[in-house]
Amino acid sequence: MKDKLVRAITPNQHVRILACTTTQLVEKARVQHDLWPTSAAALGRVLSVTAILGSMLKSEKEKVTVQINGGGAIGTIMADANHKGEVRGFVGDPHQYLKYNDSNKLAVGLVVGNQGYLKVIKDMGLKDQFAGQVELVSGEIGDDFAYYFTVSEQTPSAVSVGVLVDTDYSIKSAGAMIIQIMPDALEEDIIACEEAIKNLKPISELVAEGNTAEDLVHIVFPDAEILGESELAWHCDCSKDRFKAALTTLDRKDLEEMLEVDHGCEVKCQYCNSTYNFDEHDLQVILEFKAACGR
């Protein structure tokens, strides 16, 4: 079953709901980066919420990037998404496997840490970018994004996100839901949201039971109107041409050293681990291009 995202609203238009299933794209990320369970859960949660952030963009030219660093063992977590539902990401240390002693659950909060920040950068295809940053609340990702929406975007939100890792380390289920209070909401709407969330099962458990993104919405708000849906997928747009363009920004001295000493270079994409090789001819072409441009 393909990963899906749905956008919905309550009949009085006071509460917006965005829900997604992300099992396939998180599994793809696990394979691409050889993720161990806790690293997979951490990156999977960030990918899932980033996918929802991507759905909020207005055009295909826009992109959203999420960066999290809480000072924990996992290091930096990066993810980005676009309006088309294409998502990618990576973690500093893909080989984290730690559980909480009391619950035996994956210790995402511990490996992420909470002495740091969550940053959201929205590239609108213009000269300037929008960037919002908040301190981490717990490192468990859901609470941190809820705090970000409330503080940075002034939209009170509840965020439920989860990743269930199977015994063979594969991703059994993953998904997320964001419930947002609209400006015209009344006190009774807020109370209704709190009650619905309080009794909600973990999202990963609901997805594992076979619930679709639309089902997730109607479990919380049975009368919610589905406004639209879209597919989600792991996708990295890296290419040799993109890295060639990046190499042209290096100093001539560095390029000449690669050419004369190493006789080429290998570049690796952090997002998907794809590697691109540039031989002596490739580097010579880049040097000639820089010379023609007076660089």
What would you say about this model in short?
With 295 residues, this protein is an alpha+beta fold. It is built from ten helices and 13 strands.
Explain what the structure shows.
The protein folds into two domains: 4-234, Hsp33 domain, CATH 3.55.30.10; 240-292, Alpha-Beta Complex (CBS domain Like). The protein is 35% helix and 28% strand. The protein has ten helices and 13 strands. The strands form three sheets. It has a six-stranded mixed sheet, with helices on one face. Strand 6 and strand 7 form a beta hairpin.
Question: What labels would you give this structure?
Answer:
295 residues, alpha+beta, CBS domain Like, 2 domains, five-stranded antiparallel sheet, 10 helices, 35% helix
Topology:
Layout: E1 4-9, E2 15-21, H1 23-33, H2 37-55, E3 63-69, E4 77-82, E5 86-91, H3 108-112, E6 117-123, E7 130-135, H4 142-152, E8 157-165, E9 171-181, H5 187-198, H6 203-208, H7 213-220, E10 225-231, E11 233-234, H8 240-247, H9 252-262, E12 264-268, E13 275-279, H10 280-292
Parallel strand pairs: 5-11
Antiparallel strand pairs: 1-2, 1-10, 2-9, 3-4, 3-6, 4-5, 6-7, 8-9, 12-13
Helix pairs in contact: 1-2, 9-10
